[in-house]
Amino acid sequence: MSELLEGNPKPENFAYREKEIPPYLVRMKSVAEASVRQLPWAKVLLMDTSPDALLGCLKDQSVEKSRSSLVVNVGNGHTIAAIISEGNIVGVMEHHTQLLNPQKIERLLINFADGKLTDKEVFEDNGHGLFYLSQPPSFSKIETVAATGPNRSMLAKTSLSVHFAAPAGDVMMTGPVGLVEAAKRKFKLE
C-alpha cells in the first residue's frame, strides 16, 4: 500500500484501471477480465471495499470541509484508518476488527494520529500494520473523525467525537460514493 501511494498520496490511487492491477491481486484481475467480457466497450475501474469506503467518507458534507480528517472503516473482518490532510493520505493503519474494543481502538487511533504508533506495535498485536507517508498532524489537529462500516458503532462507545459519514444521505452509500469519486478523479470526469 505504501509503495502505491509514495509518488501520489491521493485516496483514489487505491482504485485500479484494468491495466494497472498488480499481478498479485489475482481476484481483482479476474473481476476485471469478467467485466471486460460482459461490457467490452466500458472503462473498468476496481477498488477494494475498505479504501473506497474511506474515500466515500471524505464526500460526506461535514467531512468535505475538513482540512485534516481521520477516516475509519470498521468492517466485519478488518478495520482500516487513514489520516487525510489537505486531500493527501498521511498514513494508513489496518487491524483485525475482532481484536478491537472501544478502549483499544480509541488508543490506537489517537496514537496513530499523534505519530506515536508503530507498524511493529500493530503487527505484534496481530494487526496488519501501519505506515506514514509524512508527519501526522497530531490528534489535537484532526478536525474530523469520520467513521463508516458495519461495526462503526464501536466508535460510539469511545470518548472520541465521531461523525458517522453518510454521503448522499445514507451510510450504505459510503462505498459506492467512494468508487464513483475514484472514477471521477481517475478518469477526470466532472
What would your notes on this structure say?
The protein has 190 residues and is an alpha/beta fold. It folds into 2 domains: 47 residues, no CATH class; 134 residues, Nucleotidyltransferase, domain 5 (2-Layer Sandwich), CATH 3.30.420.40. Helix content is 34%, strand content 22%. The protein contains 7 helices and 8 strands; from the N terminus they run H-E-H-E-H-H-E-E-E-H-H-E-E-E-H. The strands form 2 sheets. Strands 6-5-4-3-7-8 form a 6-stranded mixed β-sheet, with helices on both faces. The chain has a two-stranded antiparallel sheet with strand order 1-2. Strand 4 and strand 5 form a beta hairpin. Helix 3 packs across helix 7. The model has no long low-confidence stretch (mean pLDDT 94).
Write the topology of this structure.
Blueprint: H1 2-6, E1 15-17, H2 26-38, E2 45-47, H3 49-58, H4 61-64, E3 68-74, E4 78-85, E5 88-96, H5 102-114, H6 119-124, E6 129-132, E7 144-148, E8 162-164, H7 174-186
Parallel strand pairs: 3-7, 7-8
Antiparallel strand pairs: 1-2, 3-4, 4-5, 5-6
The CATH homologous superfamily of the largest domain: ATPase, nucleotide binding domain
- Top-tier CATH class of the largest domain: Alpha Beta
Write down how many β-strands occur, each being a DSSP E stretch of 2 or more residues: 8
- The mean pLDDT is 94
Determine the strand fraction and express it as a percent band: 15-25%
Helix content: 25-40%
Second rung of CATH, namely the architecture of the largest domain: 2-Layer Sandwich
State the end-to-end CA separation: 27 Å
Number of domains: 2
Unreliable sequence segments: none
Strand order of the largest sheet: 6-5-4-3-7-8
